[in-house]
Design brief:
Length: 531
């Protein structure tokens, strides 16, 4: 099969890339290995992690359309109370992590709706579930990608003038021989204050396998996981307690704190203020990432809130899942950990009344669309990252370094983002790294490999470091990166120029920035302070 643009990976970056290229009139092939498009928002079941100004600015117009579409879907199809229906900034789950906590299936429906006109016209072909297994190259160009069906013995050879890698782990980079990095860079390489003295390429952030639960009458305890005893007794050196406990390090201070857990608190959804500047929101784990607040819906519609478990205790940092021969083993262990956390919650977790266990907790695999009840896909925070023409480093955006100056203004800015430099515990035994950030820009140079000409990153695989990936890996930034990659492919096809030439030629760069601005991509921030 052949198209103008091939997008491998159907996460948020991949969908944004395919949508941008198709809207520009290009024929597009989009592949995805899981049952749902949307990646971290859907198959990984992670409610959107967003900055404090997301309702006003700091995202592309199409990302804003996605957010509005999710709210509109609830208003059209869900039995909201009149009060919640009138809530302009409706937060269906009233979770504290985000102003738009919602059930992942809703995002799937909205994303499919955004893509539907291009599928119907034949401009967009979606191959699902397929994953890349081989890449053909000719010198510094990718000339073909072979994808294999997940469930049967079938392969398809795909070609396109531009190939976009939107996979969760940068899978096309090793297959194509594109130069890339993994893990921690050294301070000598990057000059970053938080970097180690020596490079640690196999030291990567934890992965997490999320799951949804509610709390209803009855005993819904799952079978005891085979490895439960191991995880129940597991005590990382820096954790301050067993991993399966209410105690863990505070990400920003590293102080050992105890979190609460109160299923179905009778709180008012409209009083939740999900502002990461003021409160990280993880004090009560039930409301932290709640995705359905029953009081948003008419009486009896929901017997319980639904909350999404993406909590410290499900972080799996026993080993990396990238560039190791036993990656599948580690991913299986991560799923095992999540089931063990659920079993602990149901049977042994301390309750405020002095008892133990919450047997009324029920695994909601119907919400995540999976056979085993967990999220379809693991949440992989840290991808392989291209060796880029420009690599974003900590001192570009750190609030401690930049202060009142704000983040670096890049002449080749192609978007904006904002999130604290938020690194989870890593496979090298490191604790959280959580550093204040300034509202930052996305440089085009971070999307251009140093050598390969027609392969573009379209997700978390851009030119960041281990440290700055902590700010650039979040939902709106991934979408922005993917959208710009799709628009760049179209621009280069129209002009007969290379991505490298677009960045290095002032006239072309100005034209491209005008092009993406007209498509709703914000290039600069107003005068605001970071946190």
């Amino acid at each position: 099969m052949r198209a103008d643009v091939l997008v491998v990976g159907g996460g948020l970056g991949g969908v944004a890339a395919a949508l941008a290229a198709a809207r520009a009139g290009r024929s597009v092939i989009l592949t995805e290995e899981f049952d749902w498009l949307g990646g971290q928002l859907t198959s990984q079941a992670v409610p959107p992690d967003e900055h404090s100004w997301i309702e006003q600015f700091g995202a592309t117009a199409s990302y804003r359309a996605l957010r509005n579409g999710i709210r509109d879907y609830y208003r059209r199809h869900y039995p909201l109370t009149e009060r919640s229906r009138a809530w302009t900034d409706l937060n269906p789950g009233a979770g504290w992590v985000s102003r738009l906590c919602h059930e992942p299936r809703v995002a799937v429906a909205v994303l499919e709706g955004m893509l539907a006109p291009y599928r119907g016209s034949g401009r967009l072909t979606v191959l699902q579930p397929y994953r890349p297994v081989a890449v053909a190259t000719d010198g510094d160009r990718v000339v073909g990608v072979t994808v294999a069906h997940r469930d049967r013995d079938e392969q398809i050879d795909l070609t396109a003038p531009y190939v976009l890698d939107a996979t969760e782990a940068g899978d096309l980079l090793p297959l194509s021989g594109t130069e890339y990095v993994t893990g921690f860079e050294s301070q000598a390489q990057t000059g970053e204050p938080s970097a180690p003295a020596e490079a640690q390429p196999m030291n990567m952030q934890a992965v997490s396998v999320c799951f949804a639960i509610d709390h209803v009458d009855g005993d819904h305890t799952i079978d005891r996981p085979a490895a439960y005893d191991f995880w129940r007794d597991y005590k990382p050196d820096f954790w301050g307690d067993r991993l399966l406990s209410w105690r863990s390090p505070h990400p920003r201070t590293l102080e050992i704190v105890e979190r609460s857990f109160t299923p179905n608190p009778d709180d008012d959804p409209l009083t939740v203020n999900a502002d990461q500047r003021l409160n990280p929101g993880d004090g009560n784990l039930w409301t932290f990432r709640r995705i359905a607040a029953r009081r948003n819906f008419t009486g009896g519609s929901y017997g319980s809130d639904i909350t999404l478990v993406n909590w410290p205790m499900i972080d799996y940092f026993e080993g990396p899942v990238i560039d190791v021969p036993n990656a599948s083993w580690h991913l299986a262990k991560a799923r095992e950990l999540s089931l063990s956390v659920l079993y602990w919650l149901q049977t042994e977790a301390p309750r405020p009344d002095g008892g133990t266990g919450f047997p009324g907790l029920r695994l909601r695999g119907d919400v995540t669309g999976s056979r085993d009840g967990l999220a379809q896909a693991p949440y992989i925070r840290e991808s392989r990252r291209i060796r880029a023409e420009y690599t974003v480093v900590e001192q570009d955006l750190s609030l401690a370094v930049r202060g009142a100056h704000g983040a670096v203004n890049y002449p080749d800015a192609v978007g904006v983002g904002m999130y604290r430099i938020d690194l989870h515990p890593s496979t090298g035994g490191d604790n959280y790294i959580d550093v204040g950030s300034c509202p930052f820009e996305i440089p085009l140079g971070a999307l251009i490999p140093q050598r390969v000409e027609n392969l573009l990153p379209a997700g978390k695989n851009i030119g960041t470091t281990h440290i700055t990936n902590g700010s650039y890996r979040l939902h709106p930034v991934e979408w922005n990166v993917g959208e710009v990659a799709g628009l760049l492919a179209d621009f280069c096809l129209a002009r007969g120029e290379s991505p490298r030439a677009v960045r290095s030629t002032p006239r072309l760069l100005a034209d491209f920035q005008d092009r993406i601005s007209s498509a709703g991509v914000e290039l600069r921030w107003p005068a605001i302070a970071g946190y």
